[in-house]
Amino acid sequence: MLNKSKKILDKMGPYVDEGLILVTPNFELEILSDAAYKFLEIKQKSKKLHIFDLPENALSKKIEEMVTSDSEIGSINSGETHTLIELINLERSSVRLLIIKDDSKHEKMLNMGKEFVGNASHELRTPITIIKGFTEMLLEAGEDIEPVTQKSILKKMQASCDRMEHLVKHLLRLTDLENCDLEALASVDIHRLIEDISYQVVSIYPDFRIEHLRTEDEAKAYIDSDLIELVLTNLFKNSVKYSRDEKVIEVKVDTTGEYVYIQISDKGIGIPDKDLDKIFDRFYTVDKAHCRKLGGAGLGLSIVKLIIEKHGGKIFATSEFGQGTTMHLYLPKAKEPMQVALK
Predict the structure, then answer these.
(1) Over the stretch 17-29, which tens digit does the pLDDT of each residue have?
(2) Which in 63, 115, 252, 311 has the greatest CB count within 10 A?
(3) Which stretches does DSSP call E strand in the chain?
């Protein structure tokens, strides 16, 4: 049985990402997959290894502990790396099979899911508590409550409902974007798209000015125009929300390599250095009180980043606190159709 298992696993070894190890009744390790050597940090292959001869590291200690105690499942965490170990008793044999795999991605997704649910619950709890409290107040007071007070309470309840609706809408949009592929991709003139969005934003905020600077007459990107319109509208409105006295937004468009580059700059309150790397995280807000006052839930920029990455582009921010913020976007450039020479 041992020889047969060795032959099978020896053939599988180079083609699997998991570390596959056969453990004999005498605790000798027959390492059969290339990945096993990497996991165990063994540089030179050996025909025979004993469980007590392994390099001293967390994984070796965990394997020794599992084999000697006959534990079926184990795991170790090292920074952002999560390694899962499984011990299987092979049928009609005292030989056991160790399977080692990097489970970091799955573990990260689980943690993100837990964090996501926790943050969503926290954000929903506040408006629900407000609505519940005011509802109880109205029911207890009945006809004794004054019309002016009643109207004030109802307005606050409406604002809390609007906040919940806004949050749920963004959560659903995030879910939809994560679970779908982009289909409506086409060659789109970014200059024209920016002009259309600028007109819409200025019509809502007439005291703002959007300066559209271009280095080339044409800059075509291969995008879903509706989604990129959502991205640019969100970024423009953020610039409006966090601006102070100088109400101007500068937009520069250029082409570089395989990308169309868009730069959106404002003269707003800026972002502290410690927050710059986190502003695209879900539910993250630099100033929670200010964001809550403006009706934000910390999901807008995470949606923006997800859309850009779905297009194969990238986005990052630079800022000087108290002076303004600049968003840097890179979108895939539309390829020119091949010209066929006619004879």
Answers:
(1) 778 887 887 788 7
(2) 63
(3) 19-23, 28-31, 49-50, 73-78, 81-89, 96-102, 186-189, 209-214, 220-223, 248-256, 259-266, 314-320, 324-332
